[in-house]
């Protein structure tokens, strides 16, 4: 388990202090894939670099499996760091060395014989799917292949934790997907704990079990993927989710169409979001039948989130106030989240 306790990092920048990380407390379980999202400058890289003490916290503790890394002697810290691999956006490979030499690099100074090192390097390259590139130089590889080499290199010391700083940000969507598949496979096969910094909620959605949202050095929200996507607490979190689901964009478009048709004033417009089995339950039909609440679906999408489904519906609502109130508690009971988006100025609730 990784525990960050009251971690702050302060930098001195032209006679002023920049608080890059501000009093962060996080617990990340062994075997978990944990996402960190936030805008540029939020402190994501700085925070993640404290986990292997590439960045020493100004204040706080970094406890890995019960040991506070900040208290270790230099040799013990070197040993502890071998259990934490890291990959980056721009791969950071050594261009004057072959793929095999890049992957072998962290094995320098270990007790392994040259033959064992070579076996290990080929096993690692096989695992990440580029054994045939062993003798090639990095500049002959695509971005996705380079990241595979970087992953193999990061795994050379048999780490239990892999830190990924924007590891897919320089890749196209298809290559991103293949790297995410590889990371998921490594997580499952090796029980590797993965910490994934990204701007992209799609990456989080496809890969992570839990996610923390950072702003101005702080973790402002943290939850399971399902909870974050269905019950975001902070506006910033909602912004990130909307980017991934295109909900904002679609919503604007639908709204514009309704405005043009002068239909906006007649309805309340709401967003229903729901999870899992609710997707298959015909609750819209039930609203009409049992509660006389008439919903018209304007737009809908269903997202797959690590085995669960999350639905978003944009609906118009017509109902008598009392029926709507009863319907709301029905929806709440079925864990359908309701957000009223426009009240419809002259929304006569039902004629
Ligand atoms: N070595 C440093 N010296 C001074 N200031 C720094 C240093 N590293 C980071 N900062 C500052 O700390 C803040 C957080 O930076 P950080 O790189 O952690 O953000 P980030 O969330 O990773 O951003 P990005 O998404 O752009 O990578 C920024 O204001 C940055 O300018
Ligand atoms: Mg960064």
UniProtKB/TrEMBL annotation:
GO molecular function terms listed in the Swiss-Prot or TrEMBL record = ATP binding; ATP hydrolysis activity
**Top-level taxon:** Bacteria
Reactions the enzyme catalyzes = ATP + H2O = ADP + phosphate + H(+)
Q: SMART domains, alphabetically?
A: AAA, NIL
**Cellular component annotations (GO), alphabetically ordered:** plasma membrane
Signal peptide boundaries = none
Q: Give the record's GO biological process terms.
A: amino acid transport
SUPFAM superfamilies membership: ACT-like (SSF55021), P-loop containing nucleoside triphosphate hydrolases (SSF52540)
Q: Where is the ABC transporter domain?
A: 2-241
Keywords, sorted A to Z:
Amino-acid transport, ATP-binding, Cell membrane, Membrane, Nucleotide-binding, Translocase, Transport
Q: Which family does it belong to?
A: Belongs to the ABC transporter superfamily.
What does this chain do? Part of the ABC transporter FtsEX involved in cellular division. Has ATPase activity. Essential for cell division and viability.
> Which named protein is this?
D-methionine transport system ATP-binding protein
Species of the source: Facklamia miroungae
